[in-house]
Amino acid sequence: MEAFIIYITVFVLAIFVGFEVITKVPPTLHTPLMSGANAISGITVVGAIVAAGSKESTLAAILGCAAVIMATINVVGGFLVTNRMLLMFKKKK
Amino acid sequence: MGISLINIVYLVASVCFILGLKGLASPRTAPRGNLIGAFGMLLAVVATLLDQHIVTFQLIIIGLVVGGAIGTYLALTVEMTAMPQMVAAFNGFGGGASALVAATALLAPGDLSNVPPIQLYVATAASGIIGAATFTGSMVAWAKLQGVLRWQPKSDVLQKIINATLFLASLALGALVVMNPTGVWAYWLLVAVASVLGVMLTVPIGGADMPVVIALLNSYSGLAACATGFVLGNNVLIIAGSLVGASGLILTSIMCKAMNRSLTNVLFGTLGPTAETASADEVYGGKVKSASAEEAAMIFETARLVIIVPGYGMAVAQAQHSVRDLANLLHERGAEVRYAIHPVAGRMPGHMNVLLAEADVPYEQLFALEDINDSFPEADIALVIGANDVVNPSAREDTSSPIYGMPILDVDKAQTVMIIKRSLSPGFAGIPNPLFAAPNALMLYGDGKEMVRELTAAIREE
Q1: What DSSP line would sit under B133-179, residue for residue?
Q2: Residues of B known to be catalytic
Q3: Shortest CB distance from B31 goes to which of A38, A44, A87?
Q4: How far apart, in whole angstroms, are the C-alpha atoms of residue B323 and residue B12?
Q5: Does A92 map to a domain?
Q6: pLDDT digits (tens, 9 = 90+) for B34-74
Q7: Residue B275 lies in a domain
Q8: Domain limits at B28?
């Protein structure tokens, strides 16, 4: 139970940090914000890696591998496309 | 690497994500912010690879290489107009991955997680429901935006009953997973029911409402990662997931406000002309004036401030580069050019800004609705290209209009309003636009790109 309280604490505080940080993003950058946030939500790759590398259950390892593929598409694609977009935003010459 | 050291690396990664998002506060610092976020992800992945539970690297390497290759290919080849469907697809992959990871925690609990059983199973059920619904919902959104899926059933009572039943069924199955965690079949049934729910919720939603749906799915993909964090007892997942969840929710609320609709109305309601809506003949009858490119060019002769209002029609006509050429010409001739961008001008939040940035329009010329509306009375010309409902004065004046109360760009307050449009056909709301019949309005009939080019040529000849 105590562990759970700690996780919930982290969760609630992170939500507040999220609101504070995201409300400062100007509308011009809302699309890169979405694709960048998307890449961050690929953090699930961390859990997928452990699952794909464990030997306890073959099915779990295979599902883990599928999860690694999906999450990596999300991470790599998300950060790359965000970078591509952000480099288009230029100042007046 | 010891557990506490891995957790410290995860903490550093979490800080990187926060700093990365913080960098997005300005276009100047944004590229660096994105790199910081990516660096945080790299740290987290490397630390995880050193986890002692990992005994074989084969499947991991396969997954990273295949996923990385697909992701790189998609990111480097996607057209900017297709960005909404790609973000939708990525949302789906994130949600799907989270649901799969939660499944593996049920199959091999000792390996992955050491959280109390009740937390493990409740979080697994939550991750399964949110993740699976996000996956299928995003795939439907992708198919609709890509134009592959045109089926759009009316949202009716029967559908609401079906959705409510599916939702309750997935909750009941979630309870079953918690009470009987060894029966993994209950989890798969839950995933199946939630998958159908994801499809049913997204299918009735129309193209104009897609910005809301993508933002909401964005939020769900974060919440799914967050739930998986509770499954694994992993703080970096909880923090990263919460950040994304918050981001998606904020964007959802901004989009809903921009359309003056509640989230429930977007998800379950319908928008369209009512019996009281004036017919096109009543609104337009003999009052609409049109002009040729040459006639319009003469008005540009003396213009000091020109505000361009791009809508999605401009992007469809691929006119953004021609528009930029026109703006450059006006600038050379001493006029000031600004772009007024309505929050729902594109197919996702901020989409229009990206399309214009791609056409080398400097970001200082892009203005949000609340920053530009006061400037219209000073403007000599408001040039509307491919936008309709977002410049409809009925939203301000006509209480019986279905779009009444929606924030609009006050183009009608400019000296002259020019509207480039193929015909007088209505926009997504399906209602006529009194702006077209206003005394200071001129219709320039034609394809967006063609007409902008003709106009540019005519101004150059002056």
Answers
A1: HHHHHHHHHHHHHHTS--------HHHHHHHHHHHHHHHHHHHHHHH
A2: 389
A3: A87
A4: 45
A5: no
A6: 999 999 999 999 999 988 778 889 999 999 999 999 999 99
A7: no
A8: 1-77
Q: Which domain holds residue A29?
A: 2-86
Q: What letter does residue B278 receive in the DSSP assignment?
A: P
d(CA B462, CA A42) in angstroms, rounded, equals 55
Q: How many domains does chain A have?
A: 1
- Inform me whether the C-beta atom of residue B340 falls under 8 Å from chain A C-beta atoms: no
What is the per-residue DSSP string for A3-58? HHHHHHHHHHHHHHHHHHHHTTS-GGGHHHHHHHHHHHHGGGHHHHHHHHH--S-H
State what percent of residues in chain B have pLDDT above 90.
56
Residue B273 domain flag: no
Indicate if ipTM > 0.90: yes
Q: Which residues pair with B443 in a beta bridge?
A: B290, B419
Reported as a single tens digit per residue, the pLDDT across A36-84 is 999 999 999 999 999 898 877 888 899 999 999 999 999 999 999 999 9
Q: How far is B340 from chain A (nearest CA, A)?
A: 11
Distances (CA, A) of B22 to A38, A88, B91, B209, B243: 15, 19, 21, 28, 11
A65 assigned to some structural domain: yes
Res. B156 pLDDT band, cuts 50 70 90: confident
Q: Nearest CA to CA, how far is B345 from chain A (Å)? A: 12
Sequence-ordered alpha helix ranges (H) in B285-338: 293-300, 312-316, 320-332
Residue B232 scores a pLDDT above 80:
yes
> CA-based angle B327:B331:B337, to the nearest 5?
60
Does residue B240 belong to the interface with chain A, where contact is any CB pair within 8 Å?
yes
pLDDT band (50, 70, 90) for residue B274:
low
The two tokens of residue B314 are 């401009």
Neighbours of B3 (CB within 10 A): 10
For chain B, what is the mean pLDDT?
Answer: 89
